[in-house]
Amino acid sequence: MRKYTVNAFSKIPGGGNPAGVVLHADLLKESEMQQMAEELNFSETAFIMASENALCKIRYFTPVEEVRLCGHATIASIGLMKHLKLISDGIHQIETAAGLLTVLVHPDKIMLEMDEPNFFESMDRHLISDSLGIEVDSLLEHPSPQIVSTGLKDLIVGVKSLEILRTLRPDFKKITDISSKADMAGYHVYSYGADGSVYMRNFAPLLGIQEESATGTASGALAVYLYKYGKLPKSSETTRTFFQGMFMERPSEIEILLRDDGINTKVFVGGGVSDINSLD
């Protein structure tokens, strides 16, 4: 067993979202993985083990519970394996609780296929704005706040300006209660820059994460949400870069790839890694 920290969705040292990565975790009990994740105290820690059906199997733990999938911890894991020359560039599959997922390993980035998009209920605008400490008319009128999943269920919420996004005053108790009742991970709040770029903040206190600097699964959910409601152009292949972590002084760039064959839409999220450090 070997422990590392890796920053995912980062192009510069100190940017991105740090994850714990544990190699050769096959002999660890679930309780030991949970304890280790709590001790490392990252938003997620990935545990890599052997798989009969894929490159590897990865399990993901927040400080308080196991989750089905984590985008940034996967990018960190595959980036670490590439750094250690355990894998080469190309197309690989990984085994997760969300199923077998495809990973595209490029010279400068890793792209992870997310789970099949699923759309759930819309949420009351007054309830959501109150929990974010803003007026209801600060929310974008369309699309409405809605729960979407590409691996984990997140509430996608649009606000009208970057200044509103920057000055949110989240009530973490209210967000925790709403997230628990709706059986979702948390809120993924977005707005647009002057050039139309997408900027995001993520709050998941139910999972022990007050705010996260880069969130792959929620970014995938946001991408398919914007695509579904015509906020991204319809095409057989659409690429974008989303931005997160700028208000936490951990700038993150999350690359999005949408593939639409006219029947199904697949979403990939990815980016680079930095700050690889051994904890042993």
Give a brief outline of the structure.
The protein is of the alpha+beta class and 280 residues long. It has helices spanning 30-40, 71-83, 125-132, 162-166, 172-182, 216-228; strands spanning 2-8, 17-23, 45-49, 56-61, 66-67, 90-96, 99-105, 110-113, 118-122, 146-149, 153-158, 186-192, 198-204, 209-212, 237-244, 252-260, 265-271, 273-278.
Explain this structure.
This protein is an alpha+beta fold and 280 residues long. Helices cover 22% and strands 39% of the residues. The chain is built from 6 helices and 18 strands. It has helices at 30-40, 71-83, 125-132, 162-166, 172-182, 216-228, and strands at 2-8, 17-23, 45-49, 56-61, 66-67, 90-96, 99-105, 110-113, 118-122, 146-149, 153-158, 186-192, 198-204, 209-212, 237-244, 252-260, 265-271, 273-278. The chain has an 18-stranded mixed sheet that branches. Strand 1 and strand 2 form a beta hairpin.
